[in-house]
From TrEMBL:
It comes from Streblomastix strix. GO terms for molecular function: ATP binding; protein serine/threonine kinase activity. Keywords: ATP-binding, Kinase, Nucleotide-binding, Serine/threonine-protein kinase, Transferase. Belongs to the protein kinase superfamily. This is Putative CAMK family protein kinase. InterPro entries: Kinase-like_dom_sf, Prot_kinase_dom, Protein_kinase_ATP_BS, Ser/Thr_kinase_AS.
């Protein structure tokens, strides 16, 4: 199916594809009225399967088409930059970004949900026109489910480099703590532009994970407090792994140095993002 032509017929100008998955494709598009928009197109039957969390989606169904177009305004995606790019975020930007994402994850988990595919390309940066502000938004809930509902699958879900160690033992037993590990890997990648492990396939990744007890600290992460937070998120034992709520109480966000690094405006944005997530869930 020619998704780009469908978008043009709906008056969206496709700019580039942001990602493809089993549930659909996401395009960066330009709309004459709304400006830059991320449009996700999925087949109707896939939408029904992935719609156990309908309050998280803004969508339109187009009559006569066996698909849905789910729209999200976005400025950018946290791209999976190659290691050689070596573009580092300023500490205050990194800290504010991590705080916003963790606030969203905390709200998501407090609703009893699991995302199951946290990665760089599923974090959108949303800038409402005229505000000059940027909000981090967790996207792509196609694999999300209630924590206490069985998946009924025997195959793995998620993105291999971001999969928690316990998922290589019981692939269909994903819990909220697996989201925290995946988010830790996402932050790790955002800082270092590489993965601690990225084998060529699931079997090789599983074999490599079996030889390790923890993730080694990379030389790119100089901040001891930041690494302490990441190491707690990347703890191999899910029972010992930190939660999103606990992560937000870590000194990386609560110390005097953190408050000096994160401006009042950025702190307000994080609180607004949390309230927006809670409003959607309620």
């Amino acid at each position: 199916m020619d998704y780009e032509n469908i978008l043009r017929n709906l008056l969206f100008v496709p700019i580039t594809i942001l990602g493809r998955g089993s549930f659909g494709s996401v395009y960066l598009t330009n709309d004459l009225l709304e400006g830059i928009i991320a449009a996700k197109i999925i087949l109707r039957d896939k939408f029904k399967k992935g719609c156990s969390c309908p309050f998280l989606l803004e969508y339109n169904s187009y009559i006569g088409l066996d698909l849905f177009v789910i729209l999200r305004m976005t400025l950018n995606v946290i791209a999976e930059q190659p290691e050689e790019s070596q573009i580092s975020l300023p500490s205050y930007t990194l800290r504010a970004l991590m705080k916003q994402i963790l606030e969203g994850m905390r709200a998501f988990h407090e609703a009893g949900l699991i995302h199951r595919d946290i990665k760089c390309s599923n974090i959108l940066l949303h800038s409402p026109p005229g505000t000059g502000r940027v909000y981090a938004k967790i996207s792509d809930f196609g694999l999300a489910k209630q924590e206490d509902s069985p998946s009924g699958k025997t195959s793995y879900v998620g993105t291999i480099p971001n999969m928690a160690p316990e998922l290589f033992i019981k692939t269909n037993d994903s819990k909220q703590k697996a989201d925290i590990y995946a988010l830790g890997i996402t932050f790790y990648h955002l800082i270092t532009h590489k993965y601690p492990m990225n084998e060529k396939n699931y079997k090789c990744q599983k074999k490599m994970m079996a030889t390790l007890k923890s993730i080694e600290r990379p030389e790119e992460i100089k901040d001891d407090i930041l690494w302490d937070l990441l190491s707690k998120m990347l703890e191999f034992d899910p029972d010992k792994r930190i939660t999103a709520a606990e992560a937000l109480q870590h000194p990386y966000f609560t110390s005097p140095e953190a408050f000096a690094d994160i401006s009042k405006v950025q702190q307000d944005l994080a609180q607004q993002a949390t309230q927006a997530e809670l409003n959607e869930i309620s």
